[in-house]
Hints:
Layout: E1 6-11, H1 16-30, E2 34-39, H2 60-78, E3 82-85, E4 98-100, E5 106-108, H3 122-136, E6 140-144, H4 148-151, H5 153-168, E7 175-179, H6 183-189, E8 219-222, H7 227-236, E9 242-244, E10 247-249, E11 255-257, E12 261-269, H8 274-277, H9 291-295, H10 319-339, E13 344-348, E14 351-355, H11 357-377, H12 381-397, H13 414-430
Amino acid sequence: MAVVPRILFVHAHPDDETITTGGTIAALVGEGARVTVLSATRGEDGEVIPADLKGLEGNRAGLARVREAEVAEAMAALGVREHLFLGGSAHTFEDSGMEWGPDGHAVAASTMPANALCAAELSTVSRYIAAVIDEVRPHAVITYAANGGYGHPDHVRVHEATVAAVDLAAWRAGRLLFVDVPAEVAHETFDANQPGFAETGFSPAQTIPTKPPVSEIVIAQDISSVLGAKRSALAAHRTQVAVSGGFFALSNGIGMKIVDHEYYSIGAGTPISAQRLRSGPAPHVLTDLDIAACETQTPSAVGAAPLRRRRREPKKPGFFAYAHAVVLAVLIGFLGAMQHLNVSVFDLAGATVILPWGLVLSLLLAACGLWHLKTMYLSSSPMLVAALVIVILSYVLGQPTWLPGADIIVTGTLRSAAWLIGPMFIAAILAFIKVRRPTAAR
């Protein structure tokens, strides 16, 4: 007997499941798959669109009850029979809230409730998600990419906790997928020049809040046949979403097109074959996934190897990185060479004390510049190039026959010797310090 595919969608708030994956959910249900949607919070901090419901804003318990009803209606529109809230009756995680940062992306709110999702330990959140994975035994798990779509801290937390949970769970899912949006699709989504947009009354976007893709997008799920179901589910979230024709808007009133594909990258598990990808992204989230093989797990699978991570190799620094390093090094080298001989002399109980503050400032300037290059490009190479340029420039400035009078700037004093070797010594130390790409704010 054929195995019925089981797919678990993990989202942060009611309406996220529909906005980002509603078409995929409806398509899978239509194919006979068993779909489970897990919401981490009840969206207690959401803004409210309808004027007659504005009183719910700030009433966290009241808004939670309304959004529970809304997501139930949305699930019915998408055909989902199994919707869960993270923690069940044992624990409630609340909406952490967010603020808009200066770059147009979401950042963590300045305050949040004690039981907010982002206030909880990551291990606690991941254990609850792992419990759901062991209960549902999904063949595929789908959640946000590391950027949270547009940076919402709850989205980022759900991504992190789900990644941890698929390894923590006894059940081994065959594939972990991340929702991601190609740059050209993001532009299409917010394009106010599309036919029908003017009739919606929505505002055009001044900037596109969607963050660039985190990983290679290998799946483009065609949802054109279920757009009606997705539109109905969006309309069910009436406190959060306004729908007009083929467009929708959130509380900011900015119009977005309901596009006919939803896109995914693979975070772990069975990849899409290279042969299939030659013709473009795969058409389905279960493409090349052996459901029967996933199903053959036994209780001995507890402690089995975690899903193989599909890590992208760090992008190697390019021409700009090294050009940046050289320009910065020239500035540091010149300023340091000019400054490093400055001292202050004090008489302390008859003893002469020399305070070489110029050298200290020069080496501090070099250390800050080198660390900046290391963390910006996540590589030691531009930093080492910069340190070499600083040393060479300082040496050149100390040669009277090359640049007459330059030896006044860098002389043979102990301070000059420290300046000549200091940047390379600092770079050698920093080269052994590991840095990681920063994650979105929580």
